[in-house]
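Lab notes, practical 5.
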Amino acid sequence: MNQHECRRFRHELKYAIDPLQHQVLRKKLSAILKPDAHAGPDGRYHIRSLYFDDFKNTALFEKLAGVRHRKKYRIRLYDFDHSLIRLERKTKVDQYICKENAMLTRADVERIMAGNIEFLADATSPLLKQFYIDSRCALLRPVVIVDYYREAYIHPIGNVRITFDTDLCTSLGTWPLFSKTMCPIRIIDAPRTILEVKFNDVFPQYIRGLFPDTIRPRSSIGKFVLCRAQQMRHFGDLTN
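Output from the prediction step:
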């Protein structure tokens, strides 16, 4: 794996914060940054992702081991909008991340979840073709749903994006991807709020200065790992 696989690598910093820190920081950020245009009346939007892994749980164990070069695939939808479904590949190289995506239809996703991926062999998207190859070679299969709400603030300089993720939960299997009901399993060992700070080459000092020294240290929190670990701990290695 090398950095030429992605067109743009970004910094991604994660922190576990408590509700008071969340409220204070939200107030500071909203005075300078713009809220994400896709947010609802409460300032949040819903995200549900279906993650893939192989029979060795490579994506899970590489994350736990802190492997410097790794990648994972997921299917993601926002606010249950079936017209905006994406296959995403997240690549991490040292402290940098890159996300690539390709559009899917609900019918495409249902075929993939059923194990019928042959149609991707002729896809025009390079990412979909690579997903097909990786799925065939590594026997990728859907393993866990990650469900949460996100509050996001953006700034054009450095393409800064600051997010607060809350209400993290998962499910017994992968079947309720398109269900509008909440996933039933709360991740009890997850932080109340997960703060993520993403930017390209520049993180402006006047934004950096909004963060108190108490928001330390950086964390290696992974919502995929939190959900997968709880799923495996309580219900075994469920994949459907």
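Observations recorded by the TA: The first strand starts at residue 10 and ends at 17. The domain at 3-235 is CATH 3.20.100.30 (mRNA Triphosphatase Cet1; Chain A).
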